[in-house]
Amino acid sequence: MGLEGDRHPPPPRGVQPADVAELLQHGVEAVVLSKGILEALQVCPETLELLKNKGIPAHVLQTEKAARLYNELAETQRAAGLFHSTC
């Protein structure tokens, strides 16, 4: 068999559903996910789908914008965030 038949899919990249699982255990009402300073980090579609299915709004932004939004949301609701400080 040629190389094409031996290829494996690339590993998942970015924020995974497991990364937000702990946040969900704390009754959050909104989640802010940062993409890094240079917006290099991705969020897996499955992660966004999980939050959507739970009825939790997800905000995906550049890190500085994500931090500002988190601070605003946290004043009025149970907000949680994952912040990537590099790339």
User: How does the overall form come out from the CA principal axes?
Assistant: flat
Q: State the CATH class.
A: Alpha Beta
State the separation between the terminal residues, measured CA to CA.
39 Å
- How are strands sequenced across the largest beta sheet? 2-1-3
The number of distinct β-strands equals 3
Low-confidence stretches: none
Could you estimate the helical fraction of the residues in percent?
25-40%
Order of helices and strands: HHEHEHE
Averaged pLDDT: 89
CATH homology-level superfamily: MTH938-like
Largest sheet: 3 strands, parallel
CATH topology label: Hypothetical Protein Mth938, Chain: A
Count of discrete alpha- or pi-helical segments spanning 4 or more residues: 4
Radius of gyration: 15 Å
CATH architectural name? 3-Layer(aba) Sandwich
Total count of domains: 1
What portion of residues belong to β-strands?
5-15%
Structural class: alpha/beta
